[in-house]
Amino acid sequence: MTKTIIAIGGGSYGQLKTYPDGRQVQKTKDSIEIDKKMIKLTGKEHPKIVFIGAAHGDDESRFLVIKKYFSDDFGCDVENLNLIDDSKRPNKDDLQKIILGADIIYIGGGNVTYLMQILGKTGVDKLLRQAYDKGIIMAGNSAGGCVWFDYYGNDEDDDFDGTFETFSPKKALGFVHGYFEPHWDTKPEEGIAKDSVSKNAVQRMLAKNNISGYGVDEGAALMIQTNCDKQTITEIESKPGAKIYKLAKQNLQHINSGNER
Fold it and tell me: How many other C-beta atoms are found inside a 10 Å radius of the C-beta of residue 163?
């Protein structure tokens, strides 16, 4: 049995975004080639996706964007799994049925620390492990990519001044070894900046703690497939120019082997 994780570095789903100054911008579909690959792996014409949006407070509007994207573009059956509100969260037995009955578990972006707290509180972390071991595809964007690895870094709303002293690895689910840093290519005006200072802070933090990992651009993804003792790591590039970087000590290397477009 092949176990699969697809960790996406961020991106949009073609939604109309309204900025604080009133501007409206039609966003691009940054991960469409990644998602085609993900859905093809299920071997089904209309696979079932269970979406977990706890990292962004189970925001209904975000789910509707995801649902429209995967149903309109790919013909998927998309179910929203609310975990935060006790009145909306399924009971323990139903949680198990929903998660283990999925073809794909897809976790959205937001705050990884809060997401980890909710997964632990509800016992969904253990159910995700069961689903992964069963061969259900595990996927996620941004925070939803971070969560599968051993470690992640500071969340976007953490008090981080860009120095080595304030940056530390935090434990995630640990389905995949190493560290995952999304939005590696974003600019300050796009909201989640990865400038030279913060990138250097990530590299120094990894070196100090002897951790290797990946910096992933928006519109790129790592696909990690494990079958018995054999593991294959593939880069999937959907957005033109999107790349994945291997972060080890203070060296930055673009992954060249096994990439797909």
Answer: 12
Ramachandran area for residue 72 (φ above 0: left; ψ -120 to 50: alpha; else beta): alpha
- Residue at 24: amino acid letter: Q
Q: Of 149, 203, 155, nearest to 178 (Cα)?
A: 149
Nearest to 242 by CA among 18, 29, 17, 15: 29
DSSP 3-state of 69? helix
Q: How far apart are CA 75 and CA 218, in angstroms?
A: 24
Using one digit for the tens of pLDDT, what is the confidence trace for 86-125? 999 999 999 999 999 999 999 999 999 999 999 999 999 9
Check: pTM over 0.85? Answer yes or no. yes
Longest dimension (CA), the chain: 53
Of the listed ranges 19-23, 182-186, 208-212, 218-222, the one predicted with least confidence? 19-23
Torsion over CA: 181, 261, 234, 54 (sign):
positive
CA distance 162 to 102: 39
Strand pairing of 77-80 and 48-52?
parallel
| Domains in the chain, CATH or no CATH each | 3-254 (3.40.50.880)
Task: Name residues whose C-beta falls within 8 Å of residue 18's C-beta, 6 or more positions apart in sequence.
Answer: 24
How far, in Å, are 171, 232, 255 from residue 167 at the CA level? 13, 30, 25
